[in-house]
Amino acid sequence: MWCGESAGKFGAAVTGVVLPLVAVSVLHATTFEVSLLNAASWVPWLVIGLPAGVWVDRLPRRTVMLCSDAVSCVLFVCVPLAYWLGALDVGRLLLVALLAGTAAVFFQTAYTAYLPGIVGPGDQAEGNAKLHGSASAAQIAGTGAGGLIAQVAGSVNGMLTNAATFLISFLCVARIRYREPSAPPVERARGALFREVGEGVRLVARDPYLRSLTLFGAASNLFLAGYQSLLVVFLVRDVGLTDSGVGVLVAVGGAGGVVGALVVRRGVTRFGTARALLLFEIGVPALAPLMALTSRDAAGLALFVIGYASVSVGVVAGNVIKAGFQQGYCPADVLGRVSACSSFLNCGTLPLGALLAGALGTWFGVRPTLWLMIAGIPLSALILLCSPIRRHRDLPTRAGATA
User: Fold this and answer.
1) Second-level CATH architecture of 2-176+195-391
2) How many other CB atoms are found less than 10 A from the CB of residue 152?
3) Number of CB atoms found within 10 A of residue 124's CB
4) Where are the domains of the chain?
5) Quick one: pLDDT at residue 325?
6) Other beta carbons less than 10 A from residue 342's beta carbon
7) How far apart (Å, rounded) are the C-alpha atoms in residues 236 and 230?
8) Are 256 and 308 in contact (CB under 8 A)?
């Protein structure tokens, strides 16, 4: 599972660079069209994010992950095929992003619920740190590789590399020996789906910790998606970097993700899970606005790396803490629904952020919009200061428990 997740993250990182480059360099898409492409990959969380959690709780989660990997592999092969046939356009690229995003919804929801069955409660913190650390390393390698592949072989042909990574992920997941215990057959009345979705929503809404973390995730992802949707356009058209330059620069800054995964356990040991979460989500990303000062000289590029790395450290370290908390805090039989509800709200703001940034970037310019979106990243974490989290050293390990 570790290898499969890392391969999938590598492929997703390649896509994050190559797909916008296909739109910008090959199809000459506008700023808004590039943002729309980014939004399309996250729209499925708004449409099927909640029922996906119920379906995942009903189905074998390993099978769901296998099907998701297979669908993603086929979709990314279709991009170069369409180009070779002279049929590739922005509309078809949007369709691929939309369907791949749908597959990602099912994979991520199943993956989150499947992991606690493989890793024991005492090892979940270490397991999450390793998974997030390797995922960050894969994203760094994938980002750099995406830019280099686009420069050497062309951005369209780079999609074949992405397809291959999802094939590797499929083969790795297929080799997992662990099998979930069969759930007893349950006769479900009409409307059971909506009731189960409602149960997940109520669990999140009524719990102060789940509610606060979900609202924070929704706010921060709005701004994260906004600046990320403009990043390739900004670096290529405003700063003047080549395709490979974009990949290398983002990869170097993204190394902060590995740093975040390496230091999170030390931070948790020293400060506690609650205080470490506040440190990584509020303090570290305060350097993010440096990205908007990027220029083509060495000093300007260094500012980008520092700002981008600070966001990467905060996001990865925060995700490790939040993932461990949710997996230990929520009962296994509702974990899929709780995960889907949280992801629905967290990821549901991603397409909104991308569309908002695209519209503002078209009207007011890319760099001013980048300032706005980047400044919102650390500011959104102030939501956590209005929650019970700020009063405790550690996050609770079960409902009703605090430390």
Assistant:
1) Up-down Bundle (1.20)
2) 11
3) 18
4) 2-176+195-391
5) 85
6) 25
7) 10
8) yes
